[in-house]
Amino acid sequence: MKLRNTSCLFLILPLSLLTAVQLSAAANWPAPKVVPLMPANTAPNGPAIPSTPPVESAHPAPVALWPNGAPGSEARKDEPEQISYRQEPDIVFPIIFNIHNPSITPFLPAKGKATGAAVVIAPGGGHMFVTIDREGYDLAKWLADRGIAAFVLKYRLARDQSGEGTAYKTTVEPVADGLRAIRLVRSRAAEWGVNPNHIGILGFSAGGAPALGSALHFDEGKADAADPVERLSSRPDFQALVYAEVPRGEIEVPKNTPPAFFVVAFDDSPKAAPLANLFLKYKAANVATEVHIYNSGGHGFGVRTDRPQLSISSWPSRLVDWLGETGMLKK
Q: pTM score, two decimals?
């Protein structure tokens, strides 16, 4: 187990650094519908809710995982996503839900910086919403600036807050979306400057469902599939679980499970012990795993920039160190 205490500076790219082409293309994807703040998303004595409507930070154009809609969700693929605020005791942030057309949003490094490594990022949100910025776009921009292509996954939500109702299950649709995202990135590896053998997946909190699910339930593709994307392997080349959800009960860890990187805070009681126990199962299966259990940080720290005094703020740099050590950053 490794624990380093090296400071980390998060550089979030300003709007001006996203190209006009990227912004124009993103505008063609339906904008989320703004909905009022829900009582369930408020906290007593929390920070003030902004007076301006919630918006996603600037991002490139999303790419639908399935061009004609996700299997079982085709009839709802044209419903607009919804956006609102969530207020927690010390932070307010935008959240996205009503996701029925799952997608990835690519953040690609400059060609001169590109390492060929890529990571699909699954934000958390209790399967009710996705925390789109600090567990999605913010990390993706940070990684891209360090030569790692990042693809933010909007996956289907089993407990979606929209009130529209879904039949999605935490162990089914999010996992299918994660597996498809890996295949899709692999299918466009040449276009996106990615090494098809250096594609991983990272999950925050509930995003552990697509991340861990992909790592444990991949397949090598179907050679006779009509959809060329489905002919490719869905196996991630690495996995990263950040205070991630771990299913209860017995978990079978195949011998060819991809190498793993775990991050959690000791004071995140619901997540620390399950991740520690998962490490023991990975160890028993001889799956190479690096684990960082930080003294403090709580749950949902993502890539917050407002707590530089906490050593946990350096975890993304430790992830990059690990990717270098495992050879994922070699061109």
A: 0.91
